[in-house]
């Protein structure tokens, strides 16, 4: 199945319609977990509702998995995977490093995806013929960097605090090998990897809706994204994304060297 860029633009438009008026505005933030903080906002819920409605109308035979409202038709061959506001902590802090993620799987494999950041006005998407950018810099086809040496690489993660103790040690070990690391980027880091701005993204504890949309964006730009064991990334968990196979192999080697 081929997804048209126009349909992804329509998804981005309805997501912007719901999320933008609620960004940097006072609003109720609910906590989804006891003994911790996993925020959810009206923007998360209303954005996902709008995206689901658009997908149902266009592809009624497809399944949907979303962060806020769970799965419907999950046994379908084609399943849309939605994170309406990836980076809710940034959203509620007024920081525009959040985005709407929508991906499509075919038999479990991620084949198309988009990340839209409406406040900045950027859209990153992949539908099978490469990874594309639309935004203030115009339109462009994206490609990852050719960096093959860890000492020259730039690394991102949302925050080292997400890592369990053993994986935190592994991440710290990798961080000591790279030229520069940056935190707090959520989904935006993966798009910067596809755009050739950084070289590595390493995280853990991700859900499918956190990563499915980003897999095609990275792979179709020339990058590699797997779990920490080198397996498929679509199921989430620990994720290692790299600009190319050589750098990916070196990152995995360091992460497992302890």
Automatic annotation (TrEMBL):
Mg(2+) binds at residues 67, 83, 85-86, 210. The keyword Secreted does not apply. This is Histidinol-phosphatase. It is an enzyme of class 3 (hydrolase). Belongs to the inositol monophosphatase superfamily. Keywords: Amino-acid biosynthesis, Histidine biosynthesis, Hydrolase, Magnesium, Metal-binding. The gene is hisN. Transmembrane segments: none annotated. Its cofactor is Mg(2+). Pathway: Amino-acid biosynthesis; L-histidine biosynthesis; L-histidine from 5-phospho-alpha-D-ribose 1-diphosphate: step 8/9. PROSITE patterns: IMP_1. It comes from Rhizobium setariae. Its EC number is 3.1.3.15. The keyword Kinase does not apply. One of its GO terms (biological process) is signal transduction. InterPro entries: His_9_proposed, Inositol_monoP_metal-BS, Inositol_monophosphatase-like. It catalyses: L-histidinol phosphate + H2O = L-histidinol + phosphate. One of its GO terms (molecular function) is inositol monophosphate 1-phosphatase activity.
């Amino acid at each position: 199945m081929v997804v048209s860029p126009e349909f992804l633009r329509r998804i981005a438009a309805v997501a912007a319609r719901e999320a933008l008026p609620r960004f940097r505005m006072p609003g109720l933030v609910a906590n989804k977990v006891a003994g911790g903080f996993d925020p959810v906002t009206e923007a998360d819920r209303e954005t996902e509702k709008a995206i689901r409605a658009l997908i149902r109308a266009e592809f009624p035979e497809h399944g949907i998995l979303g962060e806020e409202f769970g799965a419907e038709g999950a046994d379908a061959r084609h399943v849309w995977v939605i994170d309406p506001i990836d980076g809710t902590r940034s959203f509620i802090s007024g920081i525009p490093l959040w985005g709407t993620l929508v991906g499509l799987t075919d038999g479990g494999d991620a084949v198309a995806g988009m990340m839209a950041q409406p406040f900045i006005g950027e859209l990153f998407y992949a539908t099978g013929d490469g990874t594309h950018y639309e935004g203030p810099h115009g339109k462009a086809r994206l490609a990852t960097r050719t960096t093959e040496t860890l000492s020259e690489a730039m690394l991102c993660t949302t925050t080292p605090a997400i890592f369990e103790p053993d994986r935190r040690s592994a991440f710290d070990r990798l961080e000591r090998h790279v030229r520069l690391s940056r935190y707090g980027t959520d989904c935006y880091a993966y798009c910067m990897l596809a755009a050739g701005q950084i070289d590595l993204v390493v995280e853990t504890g991700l859900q499918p809706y956190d990563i499915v949309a980003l897999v095609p964006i990275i792979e179709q730009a020339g990058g590699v994204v797997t779990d920490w064991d080198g397996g498929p990334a679509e199921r989430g968990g620990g994720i290692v994304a790299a600009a190319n196979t050589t750098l990916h192999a070196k990152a995995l080697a360091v992460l497992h060297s302890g």
